[in-house]
Amino acid sequence: MNAMIEQLGVYAPLIINVVKAVIFLVVGYILAGLVSSIVRKRLARIKSVDPTIGNFFASLARWLILVFVFIAVLQLFGFQATSLVAVLGAASLAIGLALQGTLSDVASGVMLIIFRPYKLGDYIDVSGTAGTVKNIDLFVTELATPDNVQIIMPNSKAWGSTVSNYSAHATRRVDLVFGIDYGDDMDKAMGIILDLANADDRVMKDPEPWTRVTNLGDSSVDLSVRLWCASEDYWDLKFAFLKAVKETFDAKGISIPYPHQVEIQRQS
């Protein structure tokens, strides 16, 4: 019994420190979440602050608190802050090499916030990876594809690649090509296209709708069409205009040619 009590006396400080460490970690994790939420909400109230910046600083506050909690837990087990800093300084090269990708993501995240090539809600394409920006934090940018698939992209990839931002400007141009039969009246077909464009309220008057003969194909005369609209109307206008032109061409006797295949059978 005495031996057991002595062993408990030996391990008691360690057990107490483990309990304290668990409490510190739990409280620190909860506190980090609360502070992050407060920072995000406070910055969201400021109209001049973009939500992207609010999310970034909320994430930064969370990670800073977690780092301080981690250092405090280490101190419970006898690691002094000064000694820890000295050890980290001595091991900085190894740590830097090990965390090269992570540190690059953080640095890229800072650059994305400063220069803001995109913001929350923008539809972007980063070297073939496309989606709507849902979140930007210290390490990654979160995208959602049109079919609602989540994409987590490292900030270093976004900063180091060519970014196409389809939401950067208030207007976009819809480019379409319609092929008509060589025997059809080109002016009539172009007139139909312009009439449909002018009748659609989503099509801007300045720049005005544009259509020209741009190619003489193997089986069709190709008419290119350019329509300017508000960025948010781009897809709706494109799909609706394709349907409207096809229906009107059919009604007006304008044919849209398509490739034909002739099958020849040999009889032995």
From TrEMBL:
Q: Name one GO molecular function term.
A: mechanosensitive monoatomic ion channel activity
- Localization: Cell inner membrane; Cell membrane
Print the keywords alphabetically: Cell inner membrane, Cell membrane, Ion channel, Ion transport, Membrane, Transmembrane, Transmembrane helix, Transport
Q: Does the keyword Cell inner membrane apply?
A: yes
Q: Which residues form the Mechanosensitive ion channel transmembrane helices 2/3 domain?
A: 64-100
Domain of life per record: Bacteria
Q: What is its main location?
A: membrane
What does the subunit comment say? Homoheptamer.
Which protein are we looking at? Small-conductance mechanosensitive channel
